[in-house]
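Illustration: Bifunctional NAD(P)H-hydrate repair enzyme.
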Amino acid sequence: MIRAHTVEQVRAAEETLLAELPEGALMQRAAHGLAHAVLDLLGGGYGGRVLLLVGSGDNGGDALYAGAVLARRGAYVEAWLLAEKVHPGGADALKRAGGTLRRLDTPSPSGSGYSTSGSARWSSRERAQRATGSRPRSFDVVVDGIVGIGGRPPLRADAAAALEQVAGIPMVAVDTPSGVDVDSGELAGPHVSADVTVTFGTHKVAHLVDPAALHSGVVHLVDIGLDLPAPALEALQPDDVAALLPSPDPHAHKYTRGVVGVRAGSSTYPGAALLSVAGADCGLAGMVRYVGDPAVQELVRAAHPEVVGDGRVQAWVVGSGADDGAKDSLRTALTDDLPLVVDADALAFADLVTGLPAVLTPHAGELAGMLGVDRADVEARPLHHVREAAELYRTTVLLKGRHSLVAEPGRPVRVTTTGTPWLATAGAGDVLGGVIGALLATGLTPYDAASVGSWLHGAAATYASQGGPIVAGDVARALPVVVASLTR
Ligand SMILES: NC(=O)C1=CN([C@@H]2O[C@H](COP(=O)(O)OP(=O)(O)OC[C@H]3O[C@@H](n4cnc5c(N)ncnc54)[C@H](O)[C@@H]3O)[C@@H](O)[C@H]2O)[C@@H](O)CC1
Ligand SMILES: [K+]
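Result:
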């Protein structure tokens, strides 16, 4: 499991550890982890050219100490100091190791060298340009030590101007990409877009939640020995999914394995029925029932001969392509008093499932409609909105997106990190609803069914895609292969 904690949780854990360790030990752990990640990227230190962007806090301290390690390994290391005061121990260490320090908050007469005097009279951009005695493009990697968990967006003008100077050079962020909101994953103005983020102790929310996650690159976690409480966020890994997946016991029969019922599609949208059933019929449940328009039922039977009609089920999937029939389908399904997936057209009636065991599966536009906000606002603040919806409906909400989020009151939000952009294809959501329904029928809780289903759906898309285009049916067909890869 990947876990992410809030800044407050990290600060509390660090405080405990700091009291136990010799002064500076924690920062040394962080800096060595950072330096080794940069060395990996460079393929060794000798001959490498490294630029450090250094802010006023301990994030800058990490960068400076790591820079000292890199300089001792033979790299040319230059630090642009973005504040009048930077971590003194780190600055001394870099100087002693032969690094070059340039101050960006005050102009130096020569425009190069480490200046300690002068007044800031130039624009941020002029200062950044003037300080670049070495041409920024000649660096192999930039280390972003501007701000970490102590930063509050938006970035200050000097930092933003320095970032403009180094655009296009591979970027390693220290702890978090500077300029993102660490606890919400939201953006506010200029920010670092990292290729790699080296973080310490635990993941932070911004590494997993979009839009900030998109700018974190590959996240490398350095263990610094923090003892942490329950996380704010978690992301299932293959082992976690394998442990949660149902597997048939030796005496299983189709009813004991779980029966999932699908009430989806309509004469206007028969495809939604076929794809919801395709997801439900991935083999995880013992049997699939389809209930709907007779003509659509025929199509379903032709495509999936093993699917049967109405009868007892353990979970329902309702809403996709249901058109005008969504409300009736939902009401009828609710009379069975069973867990259910509420998708697409049925989401307009989500208040009917308030406080019941259900999985609501909106995309950003649908969630915006449910909460009475703009779609753009949901996309800019997905974590905030999915949590709000979970509280409002007192049930499980899966907000679909690049990194889908599963929220339930009182539980860590689960983030799905599997998937491929090729999954943004018509009908993919119908397949997802079906898989989650199948998992509910096998007895998983709505929270586990939603997060495991979302993980499998993303993994199946990646497997089917192999880097190329796919359609929703491909995802459904790949599901058994992905399940097999986890269970054998
Ligand atoms: N506390 C610890 O024990 C450890 C901390 N570590 C590092 O320390 C970092 C936290 O250090 P700090 O608490 O000093 O905080 P940061 O270094 O993250 O940032 C605080 C500083 O940034 C400035 N700042 C805030 N918002 C800004 C903005 N929008 N634009 C430009 N500057 C801004 C503030 O004036 C302040 O001086 C972590 O992210 C991590 O990198 C690591 O060394 C591991 C151990
Ligand atoms: K940073």
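Reading the tokens back as a structure: The first helix runs from residue 7 to 20.
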